[in-house]
Task: inverse folding
């Protein structure tokens, strides 16, 4: 089991529990995570959702070595269908769960890791958190759920994509992507305290407030942009498949440096 789930005091806590792999996301991991989000969304005793992770790192992103559900011959058709469901549809679904959600992030949050924290309404980051999307190094223009421009602003978005470098918690807090930066050993307590404060608010009003903000972003073009950039992402896979027969143009072992 890759995901832990518990409810106490109107707060559902979803915990990523694959620390030996830096919480890298294979198919089973994501399916279990989606089931946990659905469970929290449908539980009338849950007012707030916390997403956290066991181990040193929040998430090293997608486990591109696969997880038992990858065919011997990978095609672009398979990639589009697989990524549409698990990397785009899941993420948009979590974003629109009608309850406030808070991500607690420590250590590395790489590429696909952003797809876990960005759908949350609030982000509390430990002071050791590092955020990056080095997929341009892999021959792809950005991770599937392209929230970069909305979360960071256009120039910071281009900077992290063009360079592949990681941004510190304080850097992303300055852009508004992170609500609060706290010492690593206080991350869980600070996140819980924030969730407890929110859980005291009227649930219907919270639902309406979240809907208002999300719809404002959608009217500005968020949803359409996410959908269109997903298609751009797939052209990167198509190019890689035509060159190397694999979805990314990179030696996988070379990417391990991103999670040390």
Result:
């Amino acid at each position: 089991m890759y995901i832990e789930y518990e409810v106490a005091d109107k707060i559902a806590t979803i915990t990523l529990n694959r620390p030996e792999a830096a919480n890298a996301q294979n198919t089973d991991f994501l399916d279990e995570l989606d089931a946990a989000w659905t469970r929290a969304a449908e539980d009338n005793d849950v007012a707030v959702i916390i997403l956290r992770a066991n181990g040193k790192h929040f998430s090293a992103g997608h486990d591109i070595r696969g997880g038992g559900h990858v065919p011997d011959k990978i095609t672009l058709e398979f990639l589009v269908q697989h990524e549409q469901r698990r990397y785009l549809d899941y993420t948009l679904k979590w974003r629109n769960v009608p309850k406030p959600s808070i991500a607690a992030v420590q250590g590395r949050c790489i590429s696909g890791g952003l797809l876990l924290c960005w759908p949350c309404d609030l982000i509390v980051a430990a002071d050791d958190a590092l955020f990056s999307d080095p997929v341009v190094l892999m021959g792809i223009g950005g991770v599937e759920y392209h929230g970069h421009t909305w979360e960071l602003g256009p120039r910071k978005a281009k900077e992290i994509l063009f360079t592949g470098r990681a941004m510190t918690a304080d850097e992303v807090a300055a852009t508004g992507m992170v609500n609060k930066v706290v010492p690593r050993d206080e991350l869980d307590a600070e996140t819980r305290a924030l969730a407890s404060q929110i859980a005291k608010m009227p649930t219907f009003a919270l639902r309406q407030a979240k809907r208002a903000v999300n719809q404002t972003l959608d009217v500005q073009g968020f949803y359409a942009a996410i959908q269109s950039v997903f298609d751009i992402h797939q052209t990167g896979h198509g190019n890689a498949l035509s060159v190397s027969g694999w979805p990314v143009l990179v030696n996988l072992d070379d990417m391990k440096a991103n999670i040390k």
Observations:
- The chain has one domain: 3-259.
